[in-house]
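Hi D.,

Good news: the full-assembly prediction came through. Inputs first.
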Amino acid sequence: MSEHSSQIAHQFDDAAQQYEASTLGMWAFLLTEIMFFGGLFAGFFVYILGHAPAFAEGSRHLDLTLGAVNTVVLLGSSLTMALAVRSAQQGHRNGQTIFLALTIVLGLVFLGIKGLEYAHKFEQHLVPGPQFGLEGPHAQSAQLFFSFYFAMTGVHALHMVVGVGLLSWLLVNAWRGKYTPTYYTPVEISGLYWHFVDVVWIFLFPTLYLVARHG
Amino acid sequence: MTHAILPLRLYVGIFAALILLTGLTVAVAFFDLGGGRLHIVNALAAITIAIAKALLVVLYFMHVRYSERLTWIFVGAGVFWLLILFVLILADYVGRGWVQIPTPWVS
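Then the structure:
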């Protein structure tokens, strides 16, 4: 890689250096994302300490089946994303487009199921506010749980929407054959983002859906 | 130095392990493992499984295992700062009632 191509910005010596700088930059961004979601999780843990029974009751009102299915869908999308990067490394244009398209489809399935869950919550009056319909001694504190539920899953879903946008842009470029085994950095770092959003869900799922399924 | 191409079997194996761990965390949640009012043991089991899943994704899907030392330092710094956030906040909220601090300035 002694020769500069149009895909290497002029401040880099070669493709490898550009690749390392780009992945490191992406990780720096992901660190800010870790702290962003970390704040939400820390808030959740503080409030569950003081409102354990209410949070348990709120958690039991979440649809475990849909949550588990969504977990599998998102893990599957991470697999197809990893395989899209692998195809890019190998220079398989068809593999790239197919796996990127699959990742987008799985991402949209996740968002669809999430939307379905949200719709159910509105129908069952489980949205915090004057219409909140949960009765019993924990009704007031349960609103806290659902506030966290909507804030955390909502922000996560927003990241998914951004991810689907990124992947659509990748798909167009992959279709045009822009990525080669020596230059696939955008595929790799968008993959990092996608996997990160998956990791957030890996923690969100037990935190929200599995607080107290027994008893 | 672009990254080595990992075998397809590895990716599929990681995915299978992630699905198994998801099943495990759901199954474990239905058993009361004890730990008092907050079901600490259940919580610890869920967190442990989640960390294992996250490690698989970060190390293999995100290629950190095959990345430069500097990437390791970045990821480690992120985890370390997250631990500062959790440990200091929870130390306050969990331990606040443990000692009765006289508050003569109140009334």
